[in-house]
Amino acid sequence: MKVLVLHGVNLNMFGKRDPAQYGTVTLDEINTRLGALGAELGAEVECFQTNLEGEMCQRIHRAVAEPVDAVLINAGAWTHYSYAIRDAMAILTCPIVEVHMSNIHAREAFRHVSVFAEVVRGQICGFGADSYLLGLRAGVAAAGSAKV
Length: 148
Description:
By secondary structure, the chain is α/β, with parallel strands linked by helices. The chain is built from 5 helices and 5 strands, in the order βααβαβαββα. It has a single domain (2-147), classed as Rossmann fold. The protein has helices spanning 19-22, 27-41, 53-65, 83-91, 130-147; strands spanning 2-7, 44-49, 70-74, 96-100, 122-125. Strand 3, helix 4 and strand 4 (96-100) form a beta-alpha-beta unit. The longest helix has 18 residues, at 130-147. The protein is globular, with a radius of gyration of 14 Å.
């Protein structure tokens, strides 16, 4: 099983960016935790981060051809307005899990809306770095049930 984890804009700054909101864990630490959990769950985890919207769309397009069994995405601010990324994800046939470290519903009003909501299986938010681990478990479970 292969799970693709997509990290969006500004997420390379985890550990430095607004520690009150996101904690002090770095993106590399999150990726290491995801890899370890993936191994426990029998899944290969590939992580990709970009600050360029077009690069994110291209990576999603490659996932159509590879293919991957599940996708986790934390697109950062793109979650709230990138119809380009939303449309790219709509092409995927595997389960997609949207994750956020902070509780986007308890923050600024513009963060309450996800333009991805119609194309993702579900959303996990508000659990810090554990949101990613919960998302990986959900993605692996959803991909496993889709193959049955």
